[in-house]
Write a structure and sequence with these properties.
132 residues; mainly alpha; Four Helix Bundle (Hemerythrin (Met), subunit A)
Length: 132
């Protein structure tokens, strides 16, 4: 049985869209820890759509945004790469919420992540639609 690459890409993109909406809503309501976790999850899934498109295979079951970017062969600016690196921490805080630092992230900082990640997300979505 062969993999339907377009169906997989669509699955990851749609799931990313849903998680993005959840992230934004949670952060707007002041739930930074959960919102940032879903922000990471949304970016992870969008990168997995790219990995699937490029490799023609299922993406690996990993969560590291930088590793996924590399597997997808995507070239980002230094600032964008640094942003993804910082966002990797949000994956862990959603699963292991024992870091009190995350609980003290101001809503404005979380909203800044939404804005900056949103720019990368827009670029990733555009690039994904160009390769369809």
């Amino acid at each position: 049985m062969s993999l339907n690459v377009q169906a997989q890409v669509d699955y990851w993109r749609i799931s990313s869209d849903q998680d993005w909406a959840v992230a934004v809503g949670l952060i707007q309501r002041g739930s930074q820890r959960h919102g940032l976790f879903f922000l990471h999850l949304s970016m992870e899934k969008l990168l997995k759509a790219h990995v699937c498109r490029v490799t023609g295979n299922y993406p690996p079951k990993i969560h590291n945004l930088l590793n996924l970017r590399e597997k997808a062969g995507l070239t980002l600016s230094g600032d964008e790469t640094e942003l993804l690196g910082r966002m990797n921490a949000f994956c862990m805080i959603g699963r292991y919420p024992d870091d009190p630092v995350i609980e003290t992230i101001p809503q404005q900082v979380a909203q800044h992540y939404v804005v900056e990640a949103g720019k990368v997300r827009t670029w990733l979505l555009q690039k994904l639609s160009q390769s369809s």
